[in-house]
Hints:
This protein is of the alpha/beta class. It has 14 helices and seven strands. Strand 5, helix 11 and strand 6 (about 240-250) form a beta-alpha-beta unit. The longest helix is centred in the middle third of the chain and has 19 residues, at about 140-160.
Amino acid sequence: MNRDFNIWLSGFRDSIADYCYYIDFEKVHRNVNGIKVELNILNSLIDSDNIEHDFEKLIKRYPETLKCIPLLLAVRANEIYAIDSDGAFTYNFKNQNLPVEQYKIFMKKTGLFDLIQNHIINNLVDYATGVETGLDSNGRKNRGGHLMENLVEDFIQKSGFIKNKNYFKEMYIHQITDKWNIDLSAISNQGKMEKRFDFVIKTPEMIYGIETNFYGSGGSKLNETARSYKTLALETDTIDGFTFVWFTDGKGWASARNNLEETFDVMDHIYNIKDLENGVMAEVFK
């Protein structure tokens, strides 16, 4: 296939965020439901005329409610450290390690008493749901790392391949070797390197090792990736019955276009999302 690199690169996307990328509401509700009873107990402090006294009584009767407090501060930890002119303390909210009086000081100095007592919030369950939603936005980076992989898998499935029958996810070189009795020593440094492919597709005539990635921003990693995949492509060219396929995309490649072009020039099977949308799966995997 004779393709123009500049035209191919110009089709790269700014983003591949799907509908589930922004917030994992299932996780949010699951986390809140795990402490919903305790949050509702703490709700009894709303409208309290003497919140410090009522908090002390509540903690002595329901010490398990302490585990909710870090979330009210948007902290994912069982311990919180705090220091001021009165001293330094490490508060354990899973296993109470300090007198209730000290936890009262924590609640007062962090502003949580004011938040609860002065009607800034009306329901701690709703408040916690909002906090969890905010915290989950930090998980976008991890979700983003799988977006290209998920997208490619969707196209694999739509092409008629069946998981664990003729396509496989996250397979190591030794697993491919054992399953189909193929010598991959050329890409494993004679068995010294354990490479893992994102996907492996098996057709009657060929085994395809597939890598996927998306780079929305630049960085030194892109040059390293392009160079290593160029080497991998050249090595796999010496193996009968095995083909390396790379699906990549993202405007981040603009900062590493020279290295990517070098790889493009030697790889027969390097594709972007636009290629996927144009039916390249049916052309490649026969």
